[in-house]
Amino acid sequence: MAAIVVSKYKEADEFLRNATLKQGLYDEGAILMKDVLVNLFGEEHAARRHLAQKLFRREYFRNYERRIFPKTIEETLVPFVQAGGGDLADFGYHVLMNLTADASGIDRPLRTREETATMLRMIKSFSKAATLGQLTMVDMGDKEAIRKEIIDTLEEFDQVFYTPSETRRRALLDRVERGEMPESEMPRDLLTILLRNEDNIELPRDKMLKETAYFLFVGALSTTHALTHAMQHIFTWRAEHPKDNELLKEAWFLQRCVWESLRLHPPTPELNRKLTCPVRIKSRPETFESGDLIVDMFKVNQDPLMFGFDTEAFNPHRATPPQGWLYGVTFGLGTHACLGRILVAGTPIQPGSDLKDAEYGNMYLIARALLDRGARPDPANPPTMDTSNTRRNWLTYPFLLDKG
Ligand code: HEM
What is the overall mean pLDDT for the chain? Predict the structure, then answer.
């Protein structure tokens, strides 16, 4: 049976809010993905999401982007400033992996480049679990080899990172319980929330291990690609619209650049669902009895009814749609909508709005830090595109910085 393909924003909105639809993207990567939040269904999904949401509160975003992340950006920038530049993807991986490690609750006690490289290798291996279903060129033998690699990496992750992080948090929780440490000193991260399990849901160790591994890779990889795209658009816009150079210093305009780039480059090209019962939506006449649903993220994000004319072009002056976000469905909608959305993209900043109340989002903060240090493309080394799949991500993006 042919899949139901969705390319209109309104339809995507209605379908993705329908809780009878089941996740359909990750069956092939079950070895890691089976029990993680994004793959759960019904009550089990609602209960796990409710627990995880205890982390993603407004004061968490505020505290993180004002107190913790700026230091991470500065720390990561040091070798790049000393070298007068580097590669955007390399910079992005390092800074964003630290962000998602903090959010997941995976400690990096050494904070060395070697430790970061080990974690990055593991994350890249885990991410294959999410894309196994989309690998059309890979034969079953190769898929088995990838599954074996993921199992081995999970074991290594458990020993090197997860067990020490869990042990430290359990000891801290015991100290809080005994009144030896104030609650306010507890780390604020997903692993602590899962260990505490205030909702008392069924959550054995294996599920916590996989959930933290999932958080690590889902945040770091998608944001890195998104960041390189955003910087490319900002560099090009600046060169072609010198009148907007001053505007780029304004928070609202830089945030719009980031959001417009997110609209054009959703890191997940499609969302998939399976129907578990007949479904009707207001914007289509027919009843859908059964089958699979594919939300074409690129087409939905370029729906002229939502985003106006010229929707394939980057235009940070584009009007915000009356209902919805300038970045479209890039963070999903409804039942499985991204929990990291505000951490990544912030909340809308208007011209003249009070920045004391702003959540900028980490992509904005990184773009601002790079621009403040004179980031620009390296004219001697043009960027190269990854042509091995349809995602059109940048493989390399050499950039220059003013030397500090
Ligand atoms: C540019 C960066 C990111 C993009 C574009 C993105 C996009 C998405 C999308 C499209 C979904 C929905 C999947 C579906 O409906 O099947 C999703 C779910 C999710 N995202 Fe993100 N994400 C990003 C970063 C992050 C970060 C940094 C975190 C955490 C620190 C995160 C955590 C999650 C979680 C936990 C879910 C599953 C929610 C659920 O199933 O209830 N994401 N993300």
Answer: 92
Ligand 1 atom, smallest distance to 227 CA: 1
**Sequence ranges of the domains in the chain:** 4-373
Pair type for strands 384-385 and 4-6 = unpaired
If we measure between CA atoms, which residue out of 15, 39, 37 comes closest to residue 26?
39
Atom of ligand 1 nearest to the CA of 226: 1
Asked: is 4-373 a CATH 3.40.50.620 domain? The reply is: no
The predicted structure's pLDDT at residue 393: 83
Q: How far is CA 113 from CA 59, 95, 105, 118, 394, in A?
A: 30, 11, 19, 9, 23
Encoded tokens for 203:
């959550």
Output the pLDDT for position 369. Answer: 97
| Smallest CA separation from ligand 1 atom 36, residue | 338
SS3 348: coil
User: How big is the chain, counted in residues?
Assistant: 404
117: left (phi over 0), alpha (psi -120 to 50) or beta: alpha
Q: Model confidence at 354, in pLDDT bands (50, 70, 90)?
A: confident
Q: Quick check: CB of 338 below 6 Å from ligand 1?
A: yes
Task: Count the Cβ atoms, other than its own, within 10 Å of residue 134.
Answer: 17
Instruction: State the Cα–Cα distance between residues 29 and 21, nearest whole angstrom.
Output: 19
